[in-house]
Amino acid sequence: MPEKGMIRASLPFALMLALAACGSGTDAPSDKREQSAAQVPESRLADAKVVVDSNGLAVRKGGAREAPRFGTPRGEVDALLTVAFGDQPQKSSNAECGIGPADFSQSGPLQIAYQDGKFVGWFLGEGEGVVTGDGIRPGAPMAALRDERPVQIIADSTLEGEFQYESADYGMITGFFSGSPTEGKITGLASGMTCFFR
Question: Distance between CA 19 and CA 169 in Å, rounded?
Fold first, then answer.
């Protein structure tokens, strides 16, 4: 697993995430994206400081919404984390990641991964203030996710409880659960490049 190291969201915030998902590898029409995002109950996003999706994250900054995608320079992403959480993120690095040497910024339950100074992935553990554009966060029951999104358990993974699901922005988010696939709970979520040891 990775090493340890708004601002209020609204329904339009989730809608912006779905529409901003450039490079997700799909050609789904924008009206389908809007419909998918509109199905997320606003209450799931109400306390979010940061909303993550399969291609990056989004933070409210003043009256504007900033949504850095993977590839954004570290300085820009870390500045937004500081706005969202009120403190500069904790910084660390790991020279032995499977993806190669990587740097990290940790804010609350959210860990951002960087390579060559660019945003390449995120890992979300249990905690407050961060949620996916689907309204999912670690601690939620697997049954709730399976009722709403297509979930695939990765049976041959060397990491216990690994799964992936198609997100509202038509990308893939990786996750981990404890317990059974039907009655267990989500313990972590991730997208992009991560520092998992397989």
Answer: 8
Summarize pLDDT for 174-195 with one digit per residue, the tens. 999 999 888 899 999 999 998 8
Residue 2 included in any domain: no
The 8-class DSSP code of residue 55 comes to T
For residue 6, tell me if it sits in a domain.
no
Record the pTM: 0.78
Decide if 69 contacts 59 (C-beta within 8 A).
Answer: no
Q: What is the pLDDT of residues 91-137, one digit of tens each?
A: 999 998 888 899 999 999 999 999 999 999 999 999 999 999 988 99
The strand pair at 50-53 and 130-132 is best described as: parallel
Q: How far apart are CA 81 and CA 106, in angstroms?
A: 9
Q: Which positions ≥6 away from 176 have C-beta within 8 Å?
A: 159, 160, 161, 162, 163, 186, 187, 188, 189
Four-residue CA torsion sign, 45, 15, 53, 51: negative
Q: Give the count of domains, the chain.
A: 1
Contacts of 170 (CB under 8 A, 6+ apart): 21, 24, 25, 26, 28, 33, 36, 54
Question: 37: which residues sit within 8 A by CB, 6+ positions away?
Answer: 11, 14, 15, 17, 18, 19, 133, 168
Note down the domain range covering 95.
11-192
Q: Looking up tokens 């190291």, which residue turns up?
A: 5
Residue 108 lies in a domain: yes
Question: Per the domain annotation, does 3 fall within a domain?
Answer: no
